[in-house]
Amino acid sequence: MQFDVLTLFPEMFEPVKQSIVGRAEEKGLIRINLINIRDFSKDKHKKVDDTPYGGGAGMVMRPDVVYDAYSSIKNKENAKMIYLSPQGNVLNQKKVVELSKQEHIILLCGHYEGIDQRVIDEIVDEEISIGDYVLTGGELPAMVLIDSVSRYVEGVLAEESTKEESFSENLLEYPQYTRPEEFRGKKVPEVLVSGHHQNIHKWRKEKSLEITKQKRPDLLK
Ligand code: 4FV
Questions:
Q1: Is the pLDDT of residue 144 over 90?
Q2: Burial of 208 (0-12, 13-18, 19+ CB in 10 A)
Q3: Pairing with 181, which of 97, 132, 136, 161 sits 20 to 30 Å away (CA)?
Q4: Record: fold of 164-220
């Protein structure tokens, strides 16, 4: 899986290159290529934005600079071009799994008041939001997408790790426990130390349903 990220702040992506995603990159399972949009400004001051036509607060990213940065990406014929934006459908596990089947994803990170509509219309396949709130830039949403999608790329995680996690089968995950067996007077549920796998599986299914009913009944609709 190749991620090409168009951003004004490539340095923001260092954290996402640690841990799971970092190891996946080392194993060559995913590649994250950062393109600094500012490198494509033809302005001597490296400006990438300007005031909005029609007035209004803030600045808008210029279409020509964004387009030139996009044009620099190689082998993008089969890539899915995603613009992280509050106007997109909110990312969910179903979409994450769907995206993990892609070979090549290009992520466009907006900043300021956003990006000139003409280049969005020209190059964007799909807008995706990470939630109904406004951030200062699309970089954190891009990292959320990279992190969540990378977990489903073949070989990144052990198969079973993604089988029974939250949102698989539209259920929240059952509670997890590990050593010590007793913590501040609280013991691990008996069934989990019984070694009876059928009963453990049944208990976990029941707990998932109970927790989902309690915390996210909307998932059951
Ligand atoms: C956002 C979101 C988001 C809007 C203006 C970047 C900001 C600025 N992106 N999910 N919520 N983007 O707030 O994806 O350009």
A1: yes
A2: buried
A3: 161
A4: Trp Operon Repressor; Chain A (1.10.1270)
CA distance 171 to 165: 8
- For every residue of 59-105, DSSP letters joined together read -EE-HHHHHHHHHT-SS-TT-EEEEEEEEEEEP-HHHHHHHTT-SEE
Distance CA 25, CA 16 (A): 11
Asked if residue 111 has its Cβ within 6 Å of ligand 1, the reply is yes
pLDDT digits (tens, 9 = 90+) for 7-53: 999 999 988 888 778 889 899 999 999 999 999 999 999 999 999 99
Instruction: Tell me the β-bridge partners of 54.
Output: none
Mean pLDDT of 73-100: 97
Answer left, alpha or beta for residue 180, where phi above 0 means left and psi between -120 and 50 means alpha: beta
Q: Is the pLDDT of residue 158 over 80?
A: no
Distance from the CA of 88 to the center of ligand 1, in angstroms?
A: 9
The pLDDT, as a whole number, for residue 159 is 66
In a 3-state reduction of DSSP, which class is residue 213? helix
Domain ranges of the chain: 2-158, 164-220
Tell me, using a 6 A CB cutoff, whether residue 84 lines ligand 1: yes
Q: Are 79 and 124 in contact (CB under 8 A)?
A: no
CATH number 3.40.640.10 is the correct assignment for the domain at 2-158: no
Flag whether pLDDT at 160 surpasses 70: no
**Substitution candidate for ligand 1 out of 135, 136, 139, 144 with most atoms within 8 A of CB:** 135
* Span 51-67, average pLDDT: 97
